[in-house]
Amino acid sequence: MSRDEAPSGVAFWIGAVVGIGIMVFGLRGIFINAGATQPVEFAKWFIGADLLHDLVIAPLVALVGVVVVRLLSRPWRGPVQAGLMATAIVVAVGWAPLHGYGRVTAIGNGTVQPLDYSTAVATVVGVIWALVLVWLAVIAVRRTRPV
Predict the structure, then answer these.
(1) Contact 139, 75 (CB under 8 A)
(2) Does pTM surpass 0.90?
(3) How many domains are there within the chain?
(4) For residues 89 and 66, is the Cβ–Cβ distance under 8 A?
(5) Are residues 144 and 105 in the same domain?
(6) What is the spatial distance between Cα 112 and Cα 97, in angstroms, rounded to a whole number?
(7) Helix, strand, or coil here: 77?
(8) Per-residue pLDDT tens for 27-86?
């Protein structure tokens, strides 16, 4: 990044100050409530999540991106990429309930994770890909129509 492209200006510094403040507040909460937050376990999770992202998830996403670009031409690529992105977001958000995290601490509390999350996630992913198919059908119809 050249000096001319480096972030600067009032908006950058306001964002930096607010962001640093939020991080300090979060770290303060981790250490003040150390009995409940378990800072050592949090550090293991944080470092592990970073390594998982950098060594597994990011390369996998890059590989999928290369495959999609090589297999699909430009008009078909957008819907498939959108479907893949939406699916990844749904699975990431649904990961904890799908694996039952929190269920153990919720014994006796029937309001925690009362649903069948595997069916819910599968339904949302099905809707996403149904919409992708509709989008692809619209593209196919537009391409076959004479102008």
Answers:
(1) yes
(2) no
(3) 3
(4) no
(5) yes
(6) 10
(7) helix
(8) 999 999 888 888 999 899 999 999 999 999 999 999 999 999 999 999 999 999 999 999
